[in-house]
Write a structure and sequence with these properties.
EC number: 3.1.3.7
GO molecular function, one term: inositol-1,4-bisphosphate 1-phosphatase activity
Radius of gyration: 19 Å
Distance between the termini: 36 Å
Structural class: alpha+beta
Helix content: 25-40%
Order of helices and strands: HEEHEHHHEHEEHEEEEHEHEHEEH
Family: Belongs to the inositol monophosphatase superfamily.
CATH superfamily of the largest domain: Fructose-1,6-Bisphosphatase, subunit A, domain 1
Strand content: 15-25%
Pathway: Signal transduction; phosphatidylinositol signaling pathway
Pfam families: Inositol_P (PF00459)
Shape: globular
Bound molecules: adenosine-3'-5'-diphosphate, magnesium ion
CATH class of the largest domain: Alpha Beta
CATH architecture of the largest domain: 2-Layer Sandwich
Length: 349
């Protein structure tokens, strides 16, 4: 089945959400970063992006009923006394962003519309039916620092990811792995990655009209020259042991958000490792869009046992521990190094 209509709607929604987030990032003050009950940060861009995606999908895919599994499910803080100004700011962002698109110009958006659009993201996902999966701002920590972040949107059908779209507004068009002082790469940024099952993965400039180009993972098999990625805020000692065992000589490149998946899909790096603290279960929205973009580019996304990620179990990847994103050729070597390193460090799967 072709998902042309869904892909078109998702690209439009994500591009507009990215436009909203770019404006916020430029002027964001530390005092405008809120902390959620789980102690993680959230900003007007996280809520605004979620509202924009929810409203755009709803309008573009009418009369279908939208089922959205999204990160920002709690609007209680926004509805509290004292939050009126923040909510008004978010509403203005959403209104202005939609008005910047010809097809939505003139539509009136109230604070209640924005709250309802955010609340629409409360679906639980699962193994039956169609569910959209959204991370409105992935890598909020990077966003707040003025660095990398992504807007990730995917469509699940019967528990499988069939469409993925990811905007990376600060990612260089050339490569994610560039020297910090390489000005020409730093200036030419903003990528929109997308993929649909069986149709390949593509990238196009986020703010331009250039046609999409197909992306493929790296064909490099020489691990001495390989580059590997990990989270910015969670450097895990096990990652370094695995890389050392593989003979990788370069230091890990640390990037926020699922832009790491996009980087592997484009061949910027050969491997992305994500081991977390014992007991942590990954959210599906941190991986859904990224995983289809990498696999459609010829890559592999699996857990420590080599099993593909299972997106059919609700909001968490309950059945997967540790995530490995790489090329088909390197997968067996990496799995072996992972097993050996975990045994040496007495870590259980
Ligand atoms: N202690 C932790 N361990 C693992 N993942 C965490 C975490 N704290 C936050 N996260 C998740 O990691 C995501 C960011 O990934 P990365 O480190 O690759 O940038 C966050 O997404 P958000 O920024 O959307 O909340 C959040 O869901
Ligand atoms: Mg978050
Ligand atoms: Mg996230
Ligand atoms: Mg997020």
């Amino acid at each position: 089945m072709s998902y042309e209509k869904e892909l078109g709607a998702a690209k439009k929604a994500v591009s507009l959400a990215a436009r909203l987030s770019q404006g916020v990032q430029k002027t964001l003050l530390q005092s405008e970063v809120w902390t959620k009950s789980d102690k993680t940060p959230v900003t007007a861009a996280d809520y605004g992006s979620q509202a924009v995606v929810s409203l755009v999908l709803e309008r573009e895919l009418k009369p279908a009923t939208l089922s959205l599994v999204a990160e920002e499910v709690d609007t209680r803080d926004l509805r509290k006394k004292g939050s009126e100004e923040f909510l008004e700011d978010i509403t203005k962002l959403v209104r202005d962003t939609l008005a910047s698109d010809e097809s939505y110009a003139g539509s009136s958006i109230t604070t209640e519309d924005v709250l309802n659009a955010i609340d629409c993201g409360k679906s639980q996902g699962g193994s039956s039916g169609c569910h959209w999966v959204l991370d409105p701002i992935d890598g909020t920590r990077g966003f707040v620092r003025g660095e990398q972040y992504a807007v990730g949107l995917a469509l699940l059908v019967e528990g499988k990811v069939v469409v993925g779209v990811m905007a990376c507004p600060n990612l260089p068009l050339s490569s994610a792995v560039v020297e910090k002082d390489d000005k020409s790469c730093q200036d030419n940024v903003g990528c929109l990655f997308f993929a649909a099952t069986g149709s390949g993965a593509y990238v196009q400039p986020l703010n331009g009209n250039s046609p999409p180009q197909e992306v493929r993972v790296s064909s490099n098999e020489n691990l001495e020259e390989a580059k590997f990625l990990e989270s910015y805020h969670m450097p895990i000692p096990l990652h370094s042991s695995i890389a050392k065992k593989l003979g990788i000589t370069a230091l890990p490149v640390r990037i926020d958000s699922q832009a790491k998946y996009a980087a592997v899909s484009r061949g910027d790096a050969e491997m992305y490792l994500r081991f977390t603290l014992v007991g942590y279960r990954e959210w599906i929205w941190d991986h859904a869009a990224g995983s289809i973009i990498t696999t459609e580019a010829g890559g592999v996304v699996c857990d420590v046992e080599g099993t593909p990620l299972d997106f059919s179990k609700g909001k968490r990847l309950d059945h997967n521990r540790g995530i490995i994103v790489t090329t088909k050729k390197l997968k067996p070597l990496i799995l072996k190094a992972v097993r050996e390193s975990m045994e040496e460090e007495n870590l259980r799967v």
